[in-house]
Each structure stands twice: as C-alpha cells, then as structure tokens.
C-alpha cells in the first residue's frame, strides 16, 4: 500500500495507492471540492485553479501546479509561513484512473526535499502515516460514511493500532528502499510516538 524511495539527488518520495469503489468523477470531486476536502483532510481556502494558491487550516499551503480533471492534480506543499515549519520543499501529485468495474484507481505521490531533522528522525512515516490516516477517512467519505477530518480519526481508540501498523509498514518500505535497519527502527518508534503519544 505504501512505497518509499531513497534520495534521487536530494528528494525523498512516498507513494500510496488505493482502489475506491466509486466513479472517477466522484473521487475527483472529493479531492478538489472545498466542501468535501474539509470532511476528509482539512478546511481549505484560496484561489483553487491552476496557478492559484491554497491554504489548509493547519498551515499547509502551496500553489496549484497542474490540474487535469478528472485524472491529475499536482500542487506544491509547504508547511507554516514560508514553509519554515517543515524546512525544504515538497510536491504532492494525485493521479486517478477509472477501474474496470466503475471503481477508481488512486495514486498519491509526495516528493520532498527536506532538511534535518525531519527525514533522519522520522523516515518516510513522517508523511506516510499522515496520508494513510487521511486516505482512511477519504475511503469512509466515498463509502457514504460520516467523517470529521482525519485529525478526529487520529484520536479514536482504534487509531493507535492503525498508526502503529502504518508506521511499521513505512519502516518496511524504508528497509526495502535501502534504509539502515538501526535507523529504520528508531524512525518507526519516533513516528509512532509522534502520531500516537502514550495517553498516560
């Protein structure tokens, strides 16, 4: 479900693939409509067209680089004012393709040029676990379920086990991409603690 790659130059890439039992136009609407984005990701504001800028309630912001309905959306993705909350630059690309049975193949690629200490501390789970949680909430939205954004999901009792498994899976992807086992183990522990701190 997740894949990580080691630096190509200075960039790290995480890839997530899902299949949703929903028509491609419905999935496209869910990833581009402000009303639906707030239900599985976060509230969004901005000039939501190619060349425009956006900002999520939470500080993530960027520019809409490509928009080819209903198949491709690519944005720059920065954190905090001027991107200083997560030093470096990153881009998120969403690709959709119609499946054989009226379903939709979904792919999200997050490529980042990040500085210390983000990747060394957390590995690909830094972004991977967050996207896993968001896409879990997107799946609920597309299935017609009630959602309150993935941050609410993170606080549910079931979320701790989901986060633990997600962090471990991103650790396996990191190992497969050539990560040092000792570094990977520390990164998985740091990521798990970040997303699911000990309630005690």
Automatic annotation (TrEMBL):
Residues 21-141 form the Activator of Hsp90 ATPase homologue 1/2-like C-terminal domain. Signal peptide: none annotated. This is SRPBCC domain-containing protein. SUPFAM superfamilies: Bet v1-like. Pfam families: AHSA1 (PF08327). Belongs to the AHA1 family. InterPro entries: ASHA1/2-like_C (IPR013538), START-like_dom_sf (IPR023393).
């Amino acid at each position: 479900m997740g894949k990580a790659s080691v630096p190509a130059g200075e960039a790290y890439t995480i890839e997530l693939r899902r299949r949703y039992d929903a028509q491609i136009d419905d999935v496209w609407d869910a990833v581009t409509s402000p009303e639906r984005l707030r239900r599985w990701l976060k509230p969004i504001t901005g000039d939501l067209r190619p060349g425009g800028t956006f900002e999520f309630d939470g500080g993530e912001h960027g520019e809409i680089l490509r928009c080819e309905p209903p198949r491709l959306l690519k944005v720059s993705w920065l954190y905090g004012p001027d991107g200083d909350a997560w030093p470096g630059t990153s881009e998120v690309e969403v690709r959709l393709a119609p499946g054989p049975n009226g379903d939709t193949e979904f792919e999200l690629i997050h490529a980042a040029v990040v500085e210390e200490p983000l990747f060394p501390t957390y590995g690909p789970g830094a972004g991977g676990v967050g996207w896993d949680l968001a896409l879990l909430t997107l799946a609920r939205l597309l299935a017609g379920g009630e959602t309150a954004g993935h941050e609410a999901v993170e606080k549910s009792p079931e979320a701790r086990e989901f986060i633990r498994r997600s962090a471990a899976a991103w650790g396996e992807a990191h190992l497969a991409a050539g990560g040092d086992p000792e570094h990977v183990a520390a990164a998985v522990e740091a990521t798990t603690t970040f997303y699911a701190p000990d309630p005690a």
